[in-house]
Amino acid sequence: MFVVMKKDSGKEELSNVTQRVKEFGLATQLAHGTERTVVAVLGTTTALPDLRESLELMPGVEEVVPITKPYKLSSREFQPENTVVKIGDISIGGNEVVVMAGPCAVENEEQIISTAQAVKAAGAVILRGGAFKPSTSPYHFRGLGEEGLRMLAQAREKVGILIITEVLSAKDVELVARYTDIVQIGTRNMQNFALLDEAGDLRKPVMLKRGMSATIQEWLLAAEYILSRGNHQLMLCERGIRTFETYTRNTMDISAIPAIHHLSHLPIIADPSHGTGKWHLVTPLSLAAVAAGADGLIIEVHPTPDTALKDGAQSLNFDNFKRLMAKLAPVAEATGRKIASPLGRCPEFVHER
Ligand code: PEP
Ligand code: MN
Predict the structure, then answer these.
(1) pLDDT tens per residue across span 224-273
(2) Does the Cβ of 249 fall within 6 Å of ligand 1?
């Protein structure tokens, strides 16, 4: 349940409320909105009706609202205002659409640096690239590991662009977080709860992809693992789900974008590369995602998609990425936003570790 505090309530009344919740063996988290402060009561107890009654009588309490949905901290009821994740002077979840682009996997220095330069020149503000790659087959390329992280960091310094990269296991969270600006959790790990706990202990941005067979509720509950440990710099990513269709690699669930905005305050990024698996579908689905309100895109771009070690079939070459960026601007404008521009942003990129 949520405890909505009165507008004119003070610190002491708030602290009495959180203290009372603690006495019942439960935890709290606060949302300080522009209008009101809300206290989320986290955990379960059979004494919930007694706690509710007691809270309702406390000074400073406007109302106590029972929450029927299983997810709480990620819900709009708890926090009506959008979460805006800030990295340097880039804001994700505000009125700029943020484009992240780069290869599926970091392959070598020349590949990642030339891609960083090309995607930045075309208007991307964040470079993507996997160093630890989840692979359906153990015989396929599984990434360069820490060597790949070093190359990404090198590209960031040299080109002046932020980076996002995936972490595959709880034991590597600290290592990956040391190098990257945004920690990516992939579809196959959406319900790796040990990994989610570690990501929740970080104090840096995390992007949580939707499990390929996860419902929106399961996805928000996974987000809840991260939020409930105090990491609020969280964004979600729709990357396509499994359906009966085999023409596309996944079915890009565009409806998830406005659905997430309706249910949650968290920013939502769209990944039409994994969402379709086909490079020629990436541009139309990117436009559709931004039209549906996506706060950003993550796009696979490779200097030579035909020789890519991973996901070449869904990767745009530099020219096609440039064309996509040109088409995106009017769609963002039609939704009252603009595409975040990398111009003038370097060297303000402050990398906080
Ligand atoms: C990726 O972005 O490189 C990736 C592996 O994506 P997903 O987890 O969505 O398959
Ligand atoms: Mn990929």
Answers:
(1) 999 999 999 999 999 999 999 999 999 999 999 999 999 999 999 999 99
(2) no
Ligand 1 close to Cβ of residue 258 (< 6 A) = no
Query: Max CA-CA distance within the chain?
Result: 68
Angle at 86 between CA 81 and CA 87, to 5 degrees: 165
User: In order of start, what are the domains of the chain with their CATH numbers?
Assistant: 2-65 (3.30.70.1140), 85-339 (3.20.20.70)
| Structure confidence at residue 345 (pLDDT) | 60
Whole-angstrom Cα distance, residue 149 to residue 288? 32
Tell me the C-alpha to C-alpha distance, in Å, between residue 52 and each of 32, 55, 58, 65, 233: 21, 5, 10, 9, 30
Task: Give the Å distance between the CA of 8 and the centre of ligand 1.
Answer: 47
pTM here is 0.95
C-alpha 20 – ligand 2 centre gap (Å): 48
